[in-house]
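Provenance and format

Records in this collection were gathered into a single text stream. Each protein contributes a sequence line and a token line. The two records reproduced below are adjacent in the stream.
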Amino acid sequence: MERTILHCDCNSFFASVETVLEPSYAHVPMAVCGSEEDRHGIVLAKNELAKRYGIVTAETVHSAKRKCPQLVTVPPHYNEYVRFSRMVSVIYARYTDMIEPFGIDESWLDVTASRKLFGDGMAIAERIRTEVKATCGLTVSIGVSFNKIFAKLGSDYKKPDAITEISRDNFEQIVYPLPVGQMLFVGRKTEEMLRRMGVLTIGDLARCDEEALTRRFGKLGDMLVRYARGEDNAPVQTATEPAKSISNGYTFSRNLTKAEECRHAIDFLTEEIGAKLRMGHLTCSTVTLKVKDELLKTYQKQHKLQRPTNSTRAIAEAAFSLYQLLWEPGRPIRMMTVGVSGLSSADTLGEQMSFFEDPTLVERRQRDGKRDVAVDSIRGRFGSDSIMPAAILTNDFGLLNKKKK
């Protein structure tokens, strides 16, 4: 049976969500941007009016405002983006359980088995497009094809709010004239190498000699030729690998030089890590600390714990110990990342009791566990920023700004 694959791409996702939350943004050129004060001053997303001024993702806010002085800049609200992404996924799930996310705003759907219930791929795509707009206030561009690569090209072909079908009958007319750089897995460097070989379009790539490309690019060359010819048989991957690590990092609004400041930063970063571990019923056995100095040089150190844990306090103390071993007092820190690995199920965790262990340590672990459960419960009911370490409220290096996002 011929497969029917959809690729659904929410148009200008961050900017569109902000416009749903504040409808006045629909009438002005607007971009979602990182804070210039926090040294994240780049464009993360922009609406259609901003695109007309030539504003592109990842350019600096300063550059964007030179192109469009009246540009309205909006800080990102990541919790809202996650919420809207889940709302859209609920709509997808009405039509198939074979869904493969590709970032927060894109997904592949295999609707082959759904055609008897909902019609052909174009009919299903139209239903999804209509429901997303009515339910979420967002527009979505959808590619309909017989494989994932062409479905992705279809969603990119017409934007915004459009559906494009790329079938076995028309794919040469639609796909082959497209620049080779538009095909998935053709990065900037690969595109440049292909151009030097005279391969400018996807059609040129499809007509290439497989052995010549394999000699030049290895397995990638053979794969790209097959993809260009429509020979992509990769399934929509519905199951994901269990997480192997969890990390949380931040670039501070000013360089940190004091140990006390670094401890506050570590405490803040580990709050989220501990919550994610407990939410996933996981523990970690290794803690890693990574820091960047004012010259952006990276340093890293890790430590294996005596016992697996998902205690926020235990992870923070291990990370701060790594800081004391890794860093000289007074030396500036621009960015810090705390990570945990060696994840295992907390449900199967067993702990061997020892007659020689200090009873106060056992009592402290129990208190920390109760504290974590209470904090998780409060945040679950009232939001992630409803309770936080007091030091965050008075810091001047950007942590409160990160929490508000």
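Adjacent record:
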Amino acid sequence: MNIPADIPRTYHDEFAANYQAITQKKDRLLLFAGDQKIEHLNENFYGQSIHPDASHPKHLFEIAHHAHVGAFATQLGLVARWGADYPSINYIIKLNSKTNIIPHTAHDPISTQLWSVDDVLTFKKNTQLPIRGIGYTVYLGSIYEDRMLHEAAQAVYQAHLHGLVAILWMYPRGHYVDEHKKDDYLAGATGVAASLGADFVKINPPQTTSLQQQKALLNRAVQAAGNTKVICSGGPRVPHKEFLTRVHHQVYEGLIAGSAIGRNIYQQSLPEAIAFARALRALIIEQASVSEALAIAQHYEHDQRPV
């Protein structure tokens, strides 16, 4: 574990405790992504292939509580509504979010702060909830990137001053970003996150279907990030075995430090979602094989009760 130099010595122990809690002392992170109620509105929570359990916010908290994920990332408002009922979840508070109503092809994206680090610290003090860190999304290549980069830099610095972990979502997006060359931006994105002082950087995985190219691109992104840990987003829901195989390759061939997964977990029934999150934890944190993780994912068929 690396303790950044901008963390005061009086907060070294708190940062270490927060980092160890979300990585479960394994230096890897399974981040359960629950920020999409703003980002994607309701389209990811209701539909033909989505279990009815997903339609209620409580579903997210139930999964995070029972599956023992490393951390649950969502907005402060949602934690304010439900956190008192789930005081044992490790929370990452997402400081900025925007909806997807305006496509980035029509207008360069911008996502500015909804809450400050001071707001998070006040909320943490008042509630005594285990808030372990903050998150912020930057759209690199947007004509508004300067504002987002400034807010992200300040958020990381202020979070570190109080021993919080800082995670940056780094997505190249905007009129000047060549959609066909997004893979070429991955190492640049992780390098920017490192330059802003982030502890973790979340990127979209390579678009190429070649496993060798995926490995090379992720290896390059990890190297560019230095001691900032790289994690990949999960993306749209796919069959269990396909998804577990993909994550296994990213972690053990691409050498990333984990995954940030939402839809592939929460779009299922509660028992199935809990089982699949536990399978991902086994694969990422405990170095389980794909077949071992798949067996855990299928366990919900034999035990429908969350434990």
